């Protein structure tokens, strides 16, 4: 999906909704449903989406709009992906420790 967003630090809700062709209300709904989506808000409460937020929106969009997951199914999929990533990181740390031990021998 080509989003056609200019390079900048933060994007407003209108830019994001236009890029994904969804309504701003859907983005606000997803914020409530998915803990990985938490844009910063200024003192007026205006949402400012970062590049990390955009990646998370892409994940959610792909699961819900493209693959047809229900909200609960998408949450479970994201959680299981998060768990896999945590396991991989732990295994990488273990591998690094084993390599260091091997060097010491």
Structure explained in plain terms:
This protein has helices at residues 13-20, 24-33, 51-66, 71-104, and strands at 40-41, 47-48. The protein is mainly α and 105 residues long. It has one domain: Multidrug-efflux Transporter Regulator, Chain: A, Domain 2 (Orthogonal Bundle), CATH 1.10.1660. A two-stranded antiparallel sheet has the order 1-2. The mean pLDDT is 88.
Range of strand content: under 5%
Mean pLDDT: 88
| Biggest sheet record | 2 strands, antiparallel
| Net shape | elongated
Content-based structural category: mainly alpha
- Give the SSE order as H and E letters: HHEEHH
Cα-atom radius of gyration? 18 Å
Q: How would the blueprint of this fold be written?
A:
Layout: H1 13-20, H2 24-33, E1 40-41, E2 47-48, H3 51-66, H4 71-104
Antiparallel strand pairs: 1-2
Helix pairs in contact: 3-4
Briefly, what is this?
The chain is mostly helical.
Keywords:
105 residues; mainly alpha; Multidrug-efflux Transporter Regulator, Chain: A, Domain 2; two-stranded antiparallel ribbon; 2 strands; 65% helix; elongated
């Amino acid at each position: 999906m080509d989003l056609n967003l200019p390079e900048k630090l933060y994007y407003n809700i209108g830019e994001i909704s236009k890029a994904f062709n969804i309504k701003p209300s859907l983005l606000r709904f997803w914020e409530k449903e998915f803990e990985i989506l938490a844009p910063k808000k200024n003192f007026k409460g205006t949402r400012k989406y970062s590049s990390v937020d955009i990646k998370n929106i892409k994940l959610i969009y792909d699961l819900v709009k493209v693959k047809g997951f229900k909200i609960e199914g998408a949450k479970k999929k994201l959680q299981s992906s998060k768990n896999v990533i945590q396991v991989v990181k732990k295994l990488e740390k273990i591998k690094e420790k084993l390599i260091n031990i091997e060097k010491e021998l």
